[in-house]
Amino acid sequence: MAGATDVDDTIETFVVYDLFRAFWTRVVGLFFREIAERNAHLIPRSGPVMFVVAPHHNQFVDPVILLMHAMRRVYFLTAAASMRRKFIGFYGRCLRGIPVERQQDLARRCSGTIFLEDRFAEPAVISGRDTRFTQEVQVGMKLMLPNSVGQARIEAIESDTRLRISSEMRELAALELLTQAGGTAYKVAPHVNQDDMYRAVYNRLNKGECIGIFPEGGSHDRTEMLPLKAGATIMALGATAANPELGLKIVPTGLNYFHPSKFRSRAVIDFGQPIDVPAELVEKYRQGGDAKRQACDDFLSIVADGLKQVTLNTPDLETLKLIQAGRRLYQPTQHSLTMAQQVELTRRFIKGYTVYRDLPAVAELRDRMADYNMQLRYYGIRDHQVETMRVGRAEAGALFVWRVVWLLIMGLIALPGTVINAPVFVVTSVFSKRKARAALAASTVKVRALDVIATWKILIALVLVPFLYSVYSLLAVVFVRRAPAWAQTDVIKQVSTMSTVAIYLWAWALASFMSYTALVFGEQAVDIVKSIRPLFLTLVVGSEHTELLARQRQELSDDITELVNELGPQIYPEFSTTRISEQLGDGLTTHSNIINESADAFHRKMRMGEQALRQRINSTIGSRQSSPQSEYAEETPVAGPSDKPKQRRGSKYAFNPPTPRTMETLNSISPMEFLSTVTGAVLGTGSP
Fold first, then answer.
1. For residue 609, is pLDDT > 70?
2. Best CA proximity match to 448, nearest among 173, 320, 260
3. Coil/strand/helix, residue 648
4. 443 near 449, Cβ under 8 Å?
């Protein structure tokens, strides 16, 4: 009977887990526009698996993305402090999270201030002012300085104002605090016994289950991984040492985001080759002492190398932007790459740039890309929009009007849902930024604390959206029941015959439908808005500057492609420009539904009409050029193939951006002047 009860409890736990997993994956799936995965087929279908995930860029969102693609039940190690929170702890327990007590979460402020009396003669002796070490501190506790700039184990307590630490604090920031006038505040944290946590992990692994861990120890928004903690290696080696037949696999998992804090952004999850636990390291682990520590360090290096194969790591943001620009300009094939393939190509670019960054040819391309990016910022456009500017004024004007029409159509479809959700956008933006500022103040590793924004946007929206929809539904019930005379239409009269509960539910369903429609069609509208500025530049500035920028991009792209094709085989022997898509692997995208398909169908129709419009404009211009009697022949000259190319001043790659006066004119032009320019370009009556 006891065994049957245990089985029933396990089944019930799995049912709850699966329900909450399905709920959270749908919620996070709404937040992101596209989530792609690579190499999920490498995940073992059975047996114990430990997913080692990095970088931890999106707090509570990262685990859910893994749950969406792992195809197995994964149980995460979660900070015990988070598990003690009502909301997060409830979901953590439903997802069978394993609590991990962290020293920093148990740290408490003590009285007085501490300082180094003699940093050279006695660097491990801490003196206190108005302190009570004998009452508030115990041997074995960890002494922690503000903002985590330094910490050390307390070795001995000599008096209320004097104690000794296990090793001196060498960090410059710690020394500055300890030697400043008046000393510094401090905290102490008790020693944490993790035996229960390790026992829970070993129990799950022995049952053939999967564990998820973020070895960096906390979320951050840096461009490189933080130093990995040894916990994952201790668990892997300890579990295998206790059960040699365990067969544990370590799966390095990389998370790569395109603007992780932004609503409807994109993400890629990449699974690496599973890592076996080396038998020789397990034997060294059993020996204990220095051999055990060396085994953990060696295995941690192996895991870190595996993570580097599935993550993007650059020393700073500027380097990452440079690499991404080079990847966009590289043209190995005429076929477009999927988002997952773009991430893999970026990873290879990072490796190549790290190896060849000091070559003169690479340095020259780096300078030219910096100049090109500066001009893009000057024009206020993105790289992928440059090709859009390679059109004449007549074609640009026609495309502008065409896209504005489609923008109005998309905008009208999305408008109702946008209006009813406007409070959600405002509140989530304000509160998430406030939480980010608080997280940044409490951290020494975060840059802008972007890693907490997405989490708080989702959590706040989960509370605010149902509340708003409930209010809207109640208002709908009141309106139907007390509709004024002018609103007594046939539809209102028919709805009024329904029960109050039915009206309330229909209003809820309508609000949800309007919101999701706004979500999908609004994205298409935003894409159209972004495509309008290049056409605007072509209309107002003219093709003199825009064509020059497009030529600069093409020459830069050709040179980058040539250099990569030359150096690529030296790093990747299998390198081939004709099979680049096969080498980068395939990726799967997780979004498909009827509204997405409808919006995509609208977008395809817009593009088809756009192509037909461009062909008609070009054929009209060609017929006017061929007729010398045409009244438009002199007014709209178009450069033919025999025209001489424009001469550029200076070196081959020196380009002249528009003058500040030109840009001032562009930015200050009135709507009527702009409308006149567009109309003239479309009708062929504007100046060239």
1. no
2. 260
3. coil
4. yes
Rg (CA), the chain: 31
- In order of 200, 286, 289, 675, the CA distances from 282 in angstroms are 20, 6, 13, 74
Find the range with the poorest average confidence among 207-211, 253-257, 606-610: 606-610
What tokens were used for 467? Answer: 């509340």
In angstroms, the CA 429 to CA 435 distance is: 10
| pLDDT of 583 | 59
Pairing verdict, β 142-144 and 151-159: antiparallel
Taking residue 398's Cβ as centre, other Cβ atoms within 10 Å add up to 23
Contacts of 626 by beta carbon, 8 Å cutoff, 6+ apart? none
For residue 110, the Cα-to-chain-centroid distance in whole angstroms is 39
Q: How far is the C-alpha of 365 from the C-alpha of 349, rounded, in Å?
A: 14
Using CB atoms within 10 A of its CB, is residue 268 exposed (0-12), middle (13-18) or buried (19+)? buried
What would the two tokens of residue 638 be? 């178009």
Do the beta carbons of residue 560 and residue 568 sit within 8 Å? Answer: no
The stretches of 357-488 forming alpha helices (DSSP H) are 360-379, 393-420, 422-441, 453-481
pLDDT at 616 over 50: yes
3-state secondary structure of 644: coil
* Length of the chain in terms of residues written: 688
Burial (Cβ within 10 Å: 0-12, 13-18, ≥19) of residue 546 = buried
Distance, in Å, from the CA atom of 110 to the CA atom of 187, rounded to the nearest integer, reads 6
**563-588 per-position pLDDT tens digit:** 888 888 888 777 765 555 555 665 55
On whether the CB atoms of residues 572 and 348 are closer than 8 A, the answer is yes
pLDDT over 70 at 675, yes or no: no
3-state SS, residue 612: helix
Q: Output the pTM of the full model.
A: 0.75
| DSSP β-ladder status, 74-79 and 125-129 | unpaired
In this model, does residue 87 exceed pLDDT 60?
Answer: yes
Nearest to 136 by CA among 169, 114, 121: 114
* 61 token code pair: 């969102």
Rounded to whole angstroms, the Cα distance separating 336 from 112 reads 63
* The two structure tokens encoding residue 489: 């239409």
Q: Which string of b and e fits 664-676 if b means at least 16 CB within 10 Å?
A: eebeeeeeeeeee
Instruction: Collapse the DSSP code of 65 into the 3-class scheme (helix H, G, I; strand E, B; otherwise coil) and give the result.
Output: helix
CA distances to 153, 616, 625 from 619, rounded to whole Å, are 80, 5, 10
